[in-house]
TrEMBL record:
Protein name according to UniProt: DUF663-domain-containing protein
Keyword set, alphabetical order: Nucleus, Ribosome biogenesis
Composition skew (Low complexity), residue ranges: 50-65
Family note: Belongs to the TRAFAC class translation factor GTPase superfamily. Bms1-like GTPase family. TSR1 subfamily.
Record has Magnesium as a keyword: no
Compositional bias (Acidic residues): 445-464, 475-494
InterPro entries, A to Z: AARP2CN (IPR012948), Bms1/Tsr1 (IPR039761), BMS1_TSR1_C (IPR007034), G_Bms1/Tsr1_dom (IPR030387)
PANTHER family in the cross-refs: PRE-RRNA-PROCESSING PROTEIN TSR1 HOMOLOG (PTHR12858:SF1), RIBOSOME BIOGENESIS PROTEIN (PTHR12858)
Amino acid sequence: MTSDGGHQHRASGLRQQNKKFKSKHASKGSLREKSKGKIERPLHHRSHISSVSSKASVSSAQSSAKADRRNAAKVHQRSKRQSLVAQNRVFAPEWDKKSGAPKIVAVVPLCPDVNATHVVETVWKRCLGSGVDGTSAMDVEELLMFKNGITGPVTLNVPTHHSRFQLLALPRSTLAVLDACKVADYVIFVLSAVEEVDAWGDKLLAAIKAQGVGTVVGVVQHLSTTPPRHHTGIRRSLHMYLQDHFPSYTSTSSRPFSLDVPADVDALVRTLATQRILQVGWRAGRSYLVGEGVQWVKDEEEGGAGKGGEGEGEETGLLKVTGWIRGRNLCANRLAYLVDGGDFAVRRIETPADHPSYLPRHTAPSSTTPTILALPDPSLRDDLVSSNPVDPLAQEQTWPTDEEMAGAEGMNGASRMGDGTQSHAGGKVKKMPKGTSTYQAAWLVDEEGEGEGDDVEEEEEENGDVGMSCVEAGPEADGDAENANEDDDPDADGWESMSSGSIPSDASDPADVGPASREAPPTREEQAALDLSHPDELDTPRESPARVRFAKYRGLADSRTSGWDPYENLPEEYGRVFAFEDWKRARGTAMARAGREGGDGKGAKVEVKKNEGEGDGMDVDEQDAVKNWVQRGTRVTVVLEGVPKSWVATRKPSHPIFLVSLLPHEHKYSLSHAHLVHHADHASSDPIKSKDPLILQVGFRRFTAAPVYSDPGQGSNGVALLRRFMYHGGEGEEDTKKGGRRGKEGVVATWFGPVCWDKTGVLAWKVEMGTDTPFLVATGTSMPSDVTRIIAKRVVLSGHPYKINKKTVVVRYMFFNPEDVDYFKPVQLRTKYGRSGTIRESVGTHGRMKCLFDGPMNAQDTVIMPLYKRVHPRWGTEVYKPTEPVKVTGEKGEGEQRVMARWD
């Protein structure tokens, strides 16, 4: 107790307040900026120090570890600097000696009221002087030619920044923009301050992001027509729009440049000259060339008939494409892909005969006679063979038995008899159930025709051969599956032979038509909805035995682990493609060969001969002619052979021309795969069905194909289940109904097509029935070619438990005759609640069967029997040409049609 007047402590109303956590000092971005240039310590550093006993040793170990990190940082810095120098070396001009290649700049208009030509014209005038008055008469003439669309790419020389640009003013055309973005170092997106980006611009951005793009720069037009107080907000909004689509988008002004302000035009030119170029991985490993001009001449050596013409009797010749070599060194031994034209062989590489655009107009060319820079080596030159010839005698065959030989001789003898015996020469003999009328026989399809019946499972039967590939008994074309039971007596199982020639083609017996035959076929939306609600489930047909309907299917204990020979009973198409035993090793060998023959090693010597009509009046550089490659950054003329004259006649002058050197074996056909995800903008359209014709773009190539879809993953046996539809993978309730999880994970598309060694972006368009406008339906990434990937189509037969006695159950409605029960007895049964069992015996004459399961059966459960069959894509991949119609597929009954695709 304290005395009076003494100090007494009293509790204060203030409480302790801890400091708040300041996340801005510990965020990932701040830590990354703080540790920029530093090397992370190895994980074994602490254990190494703790094992040292003395303090001196600990200090020595710490100092050595710090020195190691410093050296590693220096090596990393030196490596980055060397890569940047190597990247810019192709652009660095050596004045008074020779000049480097120009930077390719694509100008893309995104809004309807903007003009890409105006952007090029403004930059041109700003670099040449203040307006047209400061330019020469020749520059004004060239500018007028460009404005009229006479010239192609514009090569602009900027000595102030020691740079050169090749400007591509693009129209509002999807194909033209995509082709230009494939080869462009910089992509200038032209936006409007008045109008927003329309639907075409949004779809174009989605396609550009999927295929890959270099450095992005933004430009705004019509900013002067808006009030000055809105300029900052407009530019900030457009900057956020581009940054939302391209996270790597940056610029010196951090906002799109305005062409109405001269200082912004100067900043735009400075940005193009100094900003680092973002590399696109799949194009960096190959040589490509943007054509400044093309010239088609008749091939005098071949007498006017080239070696690479696709159309029989079509006039072919030599095509001379002039431009700068970019990427890697250009090798004359490699084939070249011409945009919208296909693959062609290189006849020679020579110096261009025209006047270089970067030289002053008063300067005369050094030589008007072209000089041969490189010729292909006949022993190392790639051929134009894309597929192997099919040898029918090389297939697996079974030697006939004595009974079959005797039966064949008896049939031949009967056919030679003139005793009035009925001949079936006019039609094929089919096996039909006893009592079948002629009208009913017309609706029964045999296995060789690959008909599937009248099931509504997915209407795969509308195309005849969709997925009906016999993997159990030989090649598809042989139809061996239907002969599996020919040794049995036809009369013993209730079957009789009927001639297809005696079956009427018209409906002459309407009384035999069942109600199922008169029902309208389901639409594609109904098929997709049924596949989502009951995937792969199918009602057993009553009109035909199940052992015949599913003769080409097999049962598997586990679809992911059960053995399946990938080379078993393959169709003829597999004999035409090329297979790779080890994809990674083959890719490394092809890359090493391309680098060795392309100048990374010593070039192969070529004996230069003056061919008739080729060597006359043409100089040969002795120093460069011993090599079959030309250094990158060189302006050359590539002469292609076998190019059809129609390619030049149908080409649009506003579309860019580019040439790509293919890597070894990229002309060969194999079983190609790509992981695709349904595009969000196409969610409201019809579902994309397996084997629908699509326009595919894989890297530089663009072709038409009908891919087959399967699950992204596969088991240890290489089996992937077939996907009948490509679903949309959205987030909302409506999107879940359209695809849900199956749409998010995407599908693996498979088709027969050319090999692509690099991992590239894949775009898929579809031209729907009733319209000629292609829609972007899917985007994805290419996968290694693999002929051993097994795509298995699954059908699930379901039955109902009729009587249950613990583990023994009588199942009905799965089959409808005892012969089918005996035929499928070896196949394992399963239930939707996780039970597994086997068929013991048939009960009665209506298809009921007694089954034994591994546990008591629930009365609410459903018995299922999964059956599998391997499917294959169709052969028919063609180079897509905008001037030729493409295939489109409609609903059942409409068939396939060919329409012209309108992209613009």
